[in-house]
Design brief:
The protein is 77% helix and 0% strand. By secondary structure, the chain is mostly helical. Helix 4 (74-85) runs parallel beside helix 9 (172-178) and helix 5 packs antiparallel against helix 9 (172-178).
Length: 231
């Protein structure tokens, strides 16, 4: 108990002193998580809109595939991306392995199905007459799409928040594609794993507290936007 209490107090002291290593690890985590979430949102929201409002033969199959990809293990993504960007891979010439870009690529693959599926769900709850009415009043297809997206904005925002919550706490992709390089690709989760292996718990506890605080904010935001979407 004394060991845990001392470690906890030291962890709070580390955070209050704005330890440079701690700040750098948090910065890297936020950089890759925000970048992957934004890119996944930019690609996933339009994809979800097209799938939800479109009528094509393989629609059910595409939705089933997306739902299946929600459970895709991070180690599988790590292996696939590693094979493509390693020195002998098809994208090996770009030297992406063990960089933040590699982590971002893997995390985009991880959360794209989340953003797309949640967007499909949000738009599916919107009455189809909104779009028809907008088109009848002279709106262009793009303007009609904006009307639908505006009505589904809370559900779509919940999709983006959920995606961020998924990547900020991810470890497999970060470890396999980033290599846990200090000051460059070391994220909160990989740093915590490293500190545990070394038997040094102060930094790990400090990072765990920060990660829990971020997760709490994400979950509160997700609950809020989901409530707005169904309200």
């Amino acid at each position: 108990m004394n060991f845990f209490g001392d470690s906890l107090m030291s962890a709070f002291g580390l955070m209050l002193s704005l330890d440079k290593e701690l700040i750098e690890i948090v910065r890297v985590s936020l950089n890759v998580s925000l970048a992957s979430t934004i890119i996944a949102g930019v690609a996933g929201i339009p994809a979800g809109f097209v799938i939800s409002t479109g009528d094509f033969p393989l629609k059910r199959g595409v939705i089933t595939l997306l739902n299946t990809l929600l459970a895709l293990p991070t180690v599988v993504i790590g292996l696939l991306v590693y094979a493509m960007i390693s020195r002998n891979g098809i994208f090996g010439v770009y030297d992406l392995l063990y960089t933040q870009k590699a982590i971002i690529i893997g995390q985009i693959i991880l959360v794209m199905p989340i953003v797309t599926t949640f967007t499909i769900s949000a738009i599916s709850r919107i009455d189809a007459r909104y779009r028809k009415t907008a088109m009848t009043l002279g709106a262009s297809p793009f303007q009609a799409a904006l009307v639908i997206l505006k009505e589904a904005r809370f559900g779509i925002t919940a999709a983006v928040v959920a995606a961020f919550g998924r990547v900020i706490s991810e470890i497999g992709i970060c470890m396999m594609l980033g290599g846990n390089i200090s000051g460059y690709t070391r994220t909160m989760t990989t740093a915590m794993a490293l500190q545990y292996d070394k038997g040094e718990f102060v930094l790990a506890i400090a990072l765990g507290i920060i990660l829990l605080a971020i997760s709490l904010v994400v979950n509160i935001s997700l609950t809020y936007f989901q409530g707005k979407a169904t309200g």
